[in-house]
Design goal:
heterodimer; A: 321 residues; alpha/beta; eight-stranded mixed beta sheet; 15% strand; B: 450 residues; 55% helix
């Protein structure tokens, strides 16, 4: 059971949506989840149709059975200032640091510091306990950087621990690494049934494993139903064209002979796609990871669609908890 | 499917053919087909007579192979198989190699070695947020300076946000100009200068703090690096500024690439605004993977209703044709209007020439030997089931069309001044020159009508 669920995926695969749906799905029966974003895109706010998230943990949704979803957009600069304040009581010196560009340097130019701060803040939320000693959040779900960058992003603490060999940054980096490499963490990869995202998923898994980071599940997003198989399409394209036209007419459609061509063309494209998807499912099956499929929300993603995906994830059983 | 009246069509060929067009920058969020667009533009430009080079950043393996650049060597290579009078060269950016080359070119041997061996440099050059963006700009400047190509097409890095790519040179500049770097280079130099006294108290405290925070060794690595780089900073800054101006120049054209999805178009709108603010010349929006339908007059609702009508089971005869006749003659539950339509359309069908029936798709002509088998295997599928399937498929397609149109209209309402080229969706991935050529054709056509 992993309390820190990291969701990555190639751009355009809907990883933010899947992360949000997962946070909703895990927030059942009075559970509390924290959904964090780290790329400053305000994707969570857009998805939940709320105003831009500030740098604070804020309740954004209620799930079935009284569960709650909190959200946090982590800002590296604020995280660094908080951190300095917490450990060094810097006060106005923090502002002076900002003024001369040291904060800028640390959060944008210095290699890895930014990522250390982002993962560090998320790990702090994972470990945080209330006065009674219970975890503040039952789960923390991260909308993480895309597959191509995820290993570097998560593993940067190792690198920083190597660069900064002593001091609090070093200790912080090592503490974060202990959480990230433990079974408490699971890194899920979102993909589509298309060649490039699947290839990137396979590469991403190899990299994650190479860095000893715990790979979770493969989530295939936007899966469309197979309405017709190839054999049926071929039959339709052949000697059954006239029959199809007649049947269209029987169903009450006008000018059916003009419809047959375009309809069959669409069917042929569909068949081609089904075939490509079959191939990609084969590639995914060889990865040897648990794989889950989420349906395409035909009307476009909105809040209702998000709750539908959450219900879908929940029905996949206890797989994610 | 036609363009929204508010959006002017983006004419790709005149842009590619105009000798004044020297640089095309493809930008947009991840996963929208930016690299494929850049490659397709390269192929098309070359085949129309340009001597073009495509600078790609992290292309998918098979796309890179299709252009013969499956190995990272950081210099352009000619792409074989391009037809026509022009030439196409392509390269994949190796950011560490690019950075190393700059160091080697601008520092003497000993200093260069000191920099290359510095742990801070190694980490920096291997890819901190921004290095890739900066190096892409640096490489663009180099390619332009070589003046071997009359058209450079640049793919942009999959940045965490649209800003990174434009901000990288500036960010570097502000860092190099900043007080912080001077502090890092020589904390002692700052002492005693008039007016700096107050700041100095803070600064010594800060170096102390940074030392504590990062560990003394790390800070020393940074200081050594910065000191060694000192003489090169001017050059970095000059080149970053030059590249920035190059991007603003009239010979440059930005293409914002997007897919007809909410997030991608939101990012595209943001990019459009940003380019305007930076006075960068925007040529237009390339909207990839747009779906069309040759039967768009049949709405999703009607298609679905007709499919359900067929599935309602009033026809159970396995033998197709007969069933249809029965359905047409006495459809229980179907309206008289429906049978009337049937008769009328029957006549229309008879009037049509046989050519009209020819499928534009090569899939399975009747003579195909495997076809008979397939037909046998599907004998359980009645023509009603088949037709219902086709109609459901069409309903799904129309739903996609409507969603894409809504998303696109939202963009064009916000930015009616932006010309748009729609690229019809391909059923599969692109991994050869023929595929890139097909994308180029669709780009130039600019309308996603099938």
């Amino acid at each position: 059971m992993s309390r820190f669920q990291v969701v990555s995926g190639k751009g355009g695969t809907g990883k933010t949506t899947v992360a949000a749906a997962l946070a909703l799905a895990l927030a059942t029966e009075g559970k509390r989840t924290l959904l964090v974003e780290v790329e400053g895109r305000q994707g969570i706010a857009q998805l939940f149709e709320t105003e831009a998230l500030p740098y604070e943990e804020r309740k954004i949704a209620v799930a079935s059975g009284g569960g709650e979803v909190y959200a946090l957009a982590i800002d590296a600069e604020r995280a660094l200032l908080d951190y300095l304040q917490m450990f060094y009581k810097l006060g106005s010196a923090g502002r002076a640091l900002k003024k001369i560009g040291a904060i800028d340097f640390a959060t944008t130019i210095a290699p890895g510091v930014r990522d250390v701060l982002l993962t560090g803040k998320a790990c702090e939320a994972v470990r945080r306990r209330d006065r009674q000693g219970r975890f503040t959040y039952d789960y923390v779900v991260m909308d993480a950087p895309p597959t191509g960058r995820i290993t570097r992003f998560l593993n940067v603490n190792d690198e920083v621990a190597g660069l900064a060999k002593i001091g609090p940054i070093h200790n912080q980096a090592q503490a974060v690494m202990r959480v990230l490499k433990s079974p408490e963490t699971a890194v899920h990869l979102v993909t589509l049934l298309e060649e490039m995202p699947v290839q990137e998923t396979a590469d991403g898994i190899t990299e994650l494993k190479g860095a000893e980071l715990p790979v979770g599940k493969v989530i295939v997003n936007m899966v469309r139903p197979h309405l017709l198989d190839e054999a049926a399409v071929r039959a339709a394209a052949g000697d059954r064209r006239k029959e199809v036209a007649k049947t269209l007419a029987a169903a009450g459609l006008s000018a059916p002979t003009k419809l047959v061509g375009p309809l069959l063309e669409q069917a042929a494209e569909h068949a081609q796609r089904v075939e490509l998807e079959r191939e990609q499912r084969g590639v995914l099956a060889k990865l040897g990871l648990p794989t889950y499929e989420l349906p395409l929300i035909g009307e476009g993603m909105d809040l209702a669609g998000l709750y539908r995906l959450a219900a879908e994830l929940r029905s996949l059983g206890k797989a994610f908890s | 499917m036609t363009l929204h009246p508010a959006a002017a069509p983006l004419a790709i060929d005149p842009l590619l053919d105009d000798p004044a067009t020297r640089i095309i920058v493809c930008c947009g969020s991840g996963g929208v087909g930016k690299t494929t667009t850049a490659a397709a533009l390269g192929v098309r430009a070359a085949e129309r007579g340009r001597k073009a080079v495509v600078l790609t950043i992290d292309p998918a393996r098979r796309l890179a192979q299709s252009m013969g650049i499956d190995s990272l060597n950081n210099t352009p290579r000619q792409v074989k198989g391009v037809e026509g009078p022009g030439e196409l060269h392509a390269m994949m950016l190796d950011m560490k190699r690019t950075f190393d080359e700059i160091v080697e070119a601008h520092a003497d041997k000993d200093r260069a070695r000191a920099i290359l061996e510095n742990p801070f440099y190694q980490s920096l050059s291997a890819g901190f947020a921004g290095t890739q963006e900066y190096m892409a700009m640096e490489k663009l400047g180099q390619l332009r300076a070589r003046d071997e190509w009359d058209l450079i097409i640049v793919d942009t890095p999959p940045s965490r946000s649209a800003l990174d790519f434009l901000d990288a040179p500036k960010r570097l500049g502000s860092f190099l100009d900043g007080k912080f770097i001077r502090l890092l280079m020589a904390p002692a130099k700052m002492g005693g200068r008039a007016g700096m006294k107050f700041l100095n108290v803070g600064m010594s405290m800060m170096t102390g703090t940074l030392g504590k925070l990062l560990g003394g060794q790390f800070l020393r690595d940074v200081q050594t690096f910065v000191t060694a780089m000192d003489t090169m900073f001017g050059g970095f800054r000059t080149r970053a500024d030059a590249t920035y101006r190059l991007l603003q120049a009239p010979g440059t054209a930005f293409l914002v690439v997007a897919a007809p999805e909410r997030d991608a178009l939101r990012e595209a709108a943001y990019f459009v605004e940003r380019l305007a603010a930076e006075e960068m010349p925007l040529a237009g929006l390339v909207l990839n993977r747009v779906h069309g339908s040759g039967a768009a007059r049949l709405s999703a609702e009607r298609a679905r209703a007709a499919a359900e009508n067929l599935e309602d089971g009033r026809i159970v005869d396995q033998e197709a044709g007969k069933a249809v006749e029965r359905g047409g003659a006495a459809p229980d539950g179907s309206s008289p209007e429906a049978s009337g339509t049937y008769e009328a359309t029957e006549a229309a069908a008879a009037a049509e020439s046989p050519e009209d029936h020819a499928s534009p798709d090569p899939a399975a002509p009747a003579s195909n030997p495997t076809f008979a088998q397939a037909s046998d295997a599907r004998s359980v599928t009645t023509v009603e089931q088949l037709t219902a399937g086709l109609l459901h498929l069409h309903a799904e397609r129309m739903q996609v069309l409507a969603r894409e149109r809504r998303t696109r209209d939202r963009f064009t309402a916000l930015h009616p001044e932006v010309a748009v080229a729609e690229v019809a969706a391909l059923p599969g991935d692109v991994h050869d020159l023929a595929g890139l050529r097909a994308v180029g054709d669709r780009l130039a056509d600019g309308r996603a009508t099938t």
